[in-house]
Amino acid sequence: MKKHNFSAGPCILPQEVFKEASQAVLNFNDSGLSILEISHRSKDFVDVMEEARSLALELLGLEGKGYKVLFLQGGASTQFLMAAYNLLQSKAGYINTGSWSDKAIKEAKIFGEVIEVASSKDANYNYIPKGYDVPEGLDYLHCTSNNTIFGTQIKDFPTTSAPLVCDMSSDIFSRQLDFSKFSLIYAGAQKNMGPAGTTLVVIKEDILGKIERQIPSMLDYQVHISKSSMFNTPPVFAVYTSMLTLRWLKKLGGIAAIEEQNDKKAKLIYSEIELNPLFKGFAAKEDRSMMNATFSLVDEDLKETFDAMWKEAGISGVNGHRSVGGYRASMYNAMTMESVAALVDVMSDLERKA
Ligand code: PLP
């Protein structure tokens, strides 16, 4: 039986993408060769890379607006330092909304002054800070759109005259935004796109080339742009699978269509968390994430029973992150309504039994 997988990753993809990707490992495009063994310089793979890049731009509504798309390696964690390496000349602002923002701040401090413009660390990151002033004269302002661990999501992005940089690792392609507000978007592929091993970088070219330091080639966005993401051997399987997921998303109707589904899934689980007296949510109501719902039992004595019930129902990956505890239901793009309903059924069964 296929499980209802609520894991935060890696990596939750549609079944048809898993199927097509596995077929390509055996026989890519009827070539008699595996996607893993063809040359990354061959026309077949260059076409894959081109299609992945153009689908990303198209789905984000950024075609013809001066953006370049890269598929790099090293995960979003490398982007924490790469963004600063390429953009931080004197000072940058950071909105600290969780452990991932905190890690990004730590890396940026190596390169210059970092101003923590706002933070929700005081409440174990259970809300998104609001009403803060963004100082003038920043090289850029960095935020994290969705806080995977804590289950909060930025709904209104900060206004600033500085380039806006955003880590969208856990909610890229899940909701409609005016993506042209951002000068740099990065996202590890492994939630909504493909296997771990590649990171999507969408960058407005005109913000580059403004800092004085020398940048090692592998960490220089301009080098990767000039080599069309082929400066070194690209992670071919991760890029190919990401391309398949983007094709799937386009066929479905793009971000608008998936957002409608994501909204329904989120409403279903959050209404259960609210109405069922046995559970309480972790995140502030107005800041709740559509991707990761964090909640816990009001009475920990019910844990053993609840855990046995969801396991019995074929549910997996629902345990909370150690820094929050309780439960976390991750509902990325590929998660079906049927799976969310299965979890909600178990939660309401518990209420009936208790
Ligand atoms: N940023 C966010 C929001 C994440 O959720 C994660 C991983 O889950 C990361 C960054 C780190 O990504 P990576 O493991 O690709 O370095």
TrEMBL record:
Main localization is cytoplasm
Protein EC: 2.6.1.52
Quick check: keyword Transferase in the entry? Answer: yes
- Protein's cellular compartments: Cytoplasm
Q: Which positions does UniProt annotate for L-glutamate binding?
A: R41
Show the Pfam families listed in the entry.
Aminotran_5
Indicate yes or no for the key word Cytoplasm. Answer: yes
Which domain of life, per UniProt?
Bacteria
Per the UniProt record, which residue ranges are transmembrane? none
Query: Cofactor comment in the record?
Result: Binds 1 pyridoxal phosphate per subunit.
**Catalyzed reaction equations:** 4-(phosphooxy)-L-threonine + 2-oxoglutarate = (R)-3-hydroxy-2-oxo-4-phosphooxybutanoate + L-glutamate; O-phospho-L-serine + 2-oxoglutarate = 3-phosphooxypyruvate + L-glutamate
Q: Which cofactor does it need?
A: pyridoxal 5'-phosphate
Pathway named in the protein's UniProt entry: Cofactor biosynthesis; pyridoxine 5'-phosphate biosynthesis; pyridoxine 5'-phosphate from D-erythrose 4-phosphate: step 3/5; Amino-acid biosynthesis; L-serine biosynthesis; L-serine from 3-phospho-D-glycerate: step 2/3
Quaternary structure (record):
Homodimer.
Q: Which family does it belong to?
A: Belongs to the class-V pyridoxal-phosphate-dependent aminotransferase family. SerC subfamily.
State its role: Catalyzes the reversible conversion of 3-phosphohydroxypyruvate to phosphoserine and of 3-hydroxy-2-oxo-4-phosphonooxybutanoate to phosphohydroxythreonine.
NCBIfam families assigned to the protein according to its UniProt record, in alphabetical order:
PRK05355.1 (NF003764)
Q: What is this protein called?
A: Phosphoserine aminotransferase
Q: Which gene encodes it?
A: serC
